[in-house]
Amino acid sequence: MNNIIETKALGFRYPKQKKFLFEDLNITIQEGEMVAILGSNGSGKSTLLRHFNALSRPKTGTVIVNDQWDTGNSDNWLDIRQIIGLVFQNPENQIVSTIVEEDIAFALENLGFPREEIIKRVDESLKKVGMYDYKKYPPYQLSGGQKQRIGIASILAMRPKAIIFDEATSMLDPEGRSDVLKIIYELNHTYGVTVLMTTHLLDEVVSVDRVIVLNKGRITFDDKPEVVFSNREELEAIGLSIPTVTRLAADLKAAGYLKDNAKTILTKEELIDAIEQDIGVKG
Ligand SMILES: Nc1ncnc2c1ncn2[C@@H]1O[C@H](COP(=O)(O)OP(=O)(O)OP(=O)(O)O)[C@@H](O)[C@H]1O
Ligand SMILES: [Mg+2]
């Protein structure tokens, strides 16, 4: 397996800050993984994600992208940013054109892609985010969730190997949020795009492959969601919670309604199964 991102003894501090935010941070992300980075406000999630596509660079140690490009070398930045896309929180900040298809084509045009290739990629990306019918629309007529899907399509047009979603659903209404989240999962599961995401909504990450928890720039957990979310007290101590369903199941276990077995319940379906089995209530 290819290492899409590898930080080796990464050390970083912001200018004018005395303290290092990261010291000796070692993380390897393999191609195809879907990884959530969690942590309370200021724990370093965005800063870490920015290191993955060379928007921030290490003070000490290195970050290697795609097994070959050191982010410290500016000659590599264009290559790095083509294979690692970044979707931000606010969809408004990502829209540059007055027509959806032009918006998707923008970066490709700047890179000098031939016209036929651009048309092909614009159509392909819009289809992947379910926005093909809006190709000729002005973006201002779209909802927040639709704008964010356009933002994702512009990134997809570069055919990246990995996409970073930094709180990409946080400014959307519930419907937009669930549409965008569905696309994020689909990009990974159906198209094999490596996904790195952060969110304050823990319910969004119950089905990822791996959860990395940061606390003050240090990794406190790095494991499957069911393992990480079985540490309720430790997570609460660093200002994090656990997913709603997991919390409900834990309360039902504590109250003696559900068997207190070792399995951590993450999804609604798992909770319904447990209730049917242990309490005997159907549906
Ligand atoms: N441009 C900057 N200059 C100086 N310090 C910064 C800068 N950006 C972030 N920091 C500091 O670095 C630390 C990590 O910030 P970062 O934005 O990476 O955290 P985060 O986990 O993404 O937080 P949030 O959940 O609020 O998005 C914080 O203490 C923050 O105040
Ligand atoms: Mg952040």
Characterize the structure shown.
The chain is α/β, with parallel strands linked by helices and 283 residues long. It has a domain at 243-283. 36% of the residues lie in helices and 20% in strands. The protein is built from 10 helices and 10 strands. It has helices at residues 45-52, 77-83, 100-110, 115-128, 144-156, 174-189, 225-228, 232-237, 244-254, 268-278, and strands at residues 3-12, 22-30, 34-38, 60-65, 69-70, 84-87, 162-166, 194-198, 210-215, 218-223. A 6-stranded mixed beta sheet has the order 6-7-8-3-9-10, sandwiched between helices. Strand 4 and strand 5 form a beta hairpin. The longest helix has 16 residues, at 174-189. The protein is globular. Adenosine-5'-triphosphate binds at residues 14, 17, 21, 39, 41-47.
Features:
283 residues; alpha/beta; 6-stranded mixed beta sheet; 4-stranded antiparallel beta sheet; 10 helices; 10 strands; binds adenosine-5'-triphosphate; binds magnesium ion
Task: Indicate the topology.
Blueprint: E1 3-12, E2 22-30, E3 34-38, H1 45-52, E4 60-65, E5 69-70, H2 77-83, E6 84-87, H3 100-110, H4 115-128, H5 144-156, E7 162-166, H6 174-189, E8 194-198, E9 210-215, E10 218-223, H7 225-228, H8 232-237, H9 244-254, H10 268-278
Parallel strand pairs: 3-8, 3-9, 6-7, 7-8
Antiparallel strand pairs: 1-2, 1-4, 4-5, 9-10
Helix pairs in contact: 3-4, 3-5, 4-5, 5-6
Residues 14, 17, 21, 39, 41-47 line the site of adenosine-5'-triphosphate.
